[in-house]
Amino acid sequence: MQHNDHSANQPRYRVVVAQGALRFAAAHFATFAGQAEPLHGHNYALTIEVEGDLTADAWLLDFGELKALGAALCCELDHRFLLPTRNPHLQVEEGEDSYQVRFGGRRYLFPKADVALLPIDNSTAERLAHYLAQRLASELQARGHRHLRRLTVAVEEAPGQAGGCSIELRDE
Q1: Residue 9: per-residue pLDDT
Q2: How would DSSP label each residue in 83-132?
Q3: Any idea where the domains of the chain sit in the sequence?
């Protein structure tokens, strides 16, 4: 039998932030089944949700703090080409001031200042959500928020079209 910290009668608390500064515009192309999408861009929007136990002051997390953390991550990605450094289908060469990316017969040259290097295998909404969730989880843990239990990030590529990821947060 699996142990569950939340019984059926115990409330579960969550905080959700979205909109405002939780947006970024970026270019990318994803690879699927040996093919690559054409280079294109999205006006991405994030929704961030945390669940956990209330503090002694009867709150989960300050909305402003969560929004600020998410907004900082959006700023890192805004107006960049999202380059998945672990994609086995891409050949990436780092030059002095640029990255050359090859896929089959295609060749792209991006100035370094315009690239966000991401330790992911594909620049899908789901993988972006996982990456952002991991970054947020690390920052929340570093700030001492040990009472949080789950973090969910959704990355919307277009209205009504999003990929997401939930991760469990552990006491350390």
Answers
A1: 73
A2: EETT-TT-EEEE-SSEEEEEETTEEEEEEGGGEEEESSS---HHHHHHHH
A3: 13-168
How far apart, in whole angstroms, are the C-alpha atoms of residue 161 and residue 122?
A: 17
pLDDT of 6 strictly over 60? no
First vs last C-alpha separation in the chain: 24
pLDDT at 10: 79
Residue type, 26: A
The string of pLDDT tens digits covering residues 43-84 is: 999 999 999 999 999 999 999 999 999 999 999 999 999 999
pLDDT value of residue 90: 97
Are 101 and 36 within 8 A, CB to CB?
Answer: no
Give CA separation, 152 vs 28, 85, 112, 136, in Å: 23, 23, 30, 10
Q: How many other CB atoms are there within 10 angstroms of residue 104's CB atom?
A: 12
What does the angle CA 76 – CA 82 – CA 87 come to, to the nearest 5 degrees? Answer: 130
CATH, range 13-168: 3.30.479.10
Tokens 């370094």, residue located: 112
